[in-house]
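Sample intake sheet
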Amino acid sequence: MILQVENVSKRFGGLQALQDVSFELPEGQILGLIGPNGAGKTTMFNVINGVYPPESGRVIFRGEEITGLPPYEVARRGLARAHQIVRPLNELTVRQNVMVGACYGRKGLSYAAAARVADQVLERVGLAERADQLAGSLNVAQKKRLELARALASHPYLLLLDEVLAGLNPTEVAAMLDLLRRIRDEGVTILMIEHVMQAVMNISDYVIVLDYGKKIAEGTPQEVANDPRVIEAYLGDPKLARCLLEGEESDACPPSEKGV
């Protein structure tokens, strides 16, 4: 297992954000983490990559306990993250933004080596032609790719993706999913939070569902989509189970429900 989360709990004052959450992620898989707003998904990411220490429980990455280590130490070990709200360094170029990931990632590259890696990664994510533009000039879809590129430049073993599909149109979502599959096929394990349910159910090898800080279900996409607890807490409509597991053109999905 590349990642093991054992009985993790996190509280903010009177709010129990996570309660005894455990799961494992095998190397080479894509794991989807889903649930309603406020379920604790981003808090879980923040515990895994060291933003918050848990009240109890452990995080083990590649056989080493990393519980409570600061984010820069976690990044040095090969765990990278792309954030839900992208915040590029707007006054730097696209290339320079990606170089930051290469310099402060697992290999701690020199400036010259980081520039070479940045160009390679930008080619990989489809931003090579914009390498010399200021990052602030990119549109939303391009900034999402830049956020991903900066994380990839750190040479991660595991990539945490927080709503990387948010704000993208269907064509952009399809392109991003193709990119994520290629990244997985090249040896990077992925843990992703996502609300674009059609997408996450069709790309994930395994899915975990949080609600009010507790894990309420886990399994294959088909098992999770048909779980009564998930339908009640998150999907809200049994018809969506079939929608989420079939193609976008399925007759099971009314137009208003496609891509939920």
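Comment: DSSP finds ten helices and ten strands in the chain. Residues 84-155 form one domain.
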